[in-house]
């Protein structure tokens, strides 16, 4: 089965000129006809230099709304057939994101317990069940559960990213979007986080859309790699084949 399908995906933005007369002078073809699929249990690496359209592609997936042209099918659901905000929120639960900068995405005013628990609290999960689940999640990502009352500032960069991963896993999603998850980390701790992600994928039967500007980051985790350039995919294939390409 397929967890994500991008069918001839386009996202065009109006190119405006002037601060006062917002005159349209052209079109930015940010994503310009992408076909891609991720199968269950697969890690797809989406790579390409800055400005090639990776973030726009991610947004199209995360918003669960019809693109400019083409289509997005998430976990078997055609986004054009989503009829209500409630339906969109429900689907959104199975699709979670790990952001690039854990310092920017974790609220420094909240203890780690609250950060990880938040998605469950929003779902009105029973208090005891939440407490148990937070401890489980912390252990799962290699954090000491008794540190749940500490604040994000007290953790190292790699540990903070583990907090972000625990939070993303709280509602047992099926597809994780990893948006440059190790790019803000020291090179010496990147491998630890990548290994953890790889292990979690196998253990939990997850699928990943792993976005990175650098091919080397996804080399050891991706099953397939898609290389993006100026809004188009210039190469899609098994990781070894793409790497061996002259
Ligand atoms: P990447 O994530 O690979 O760096 P982006 O998806 O951010 O690439 O950008 C792709 C192209 O679309 C770039 O030329 C960028 O300037 C343009 N772009 C992105 N967002 C917008 C927007 N909201 N309005 C206009 N142009 C945009
Ligand atoms: P940090 O990234 O926080 O600097 P490490 O990467 O060295 O630290 O690992 C922090 C904790 O995560 C350690 O307790 C380690 O045993 C655990 N850990 C490292 N790799 C994995 C993995 N692949 N799966 C689960 N736990 C891991």
UniProtKB/TrEMBL annotation:
Domain ABC transporter: 4-246
Residues of the full protein shown: 376 to 621 of 711
Domain of life: Bacteria
Family indicated by similarity: Belongs to the ABC transporter superfamily.
Protein name (record): Peptide/nickel transport system ATP-binding protein
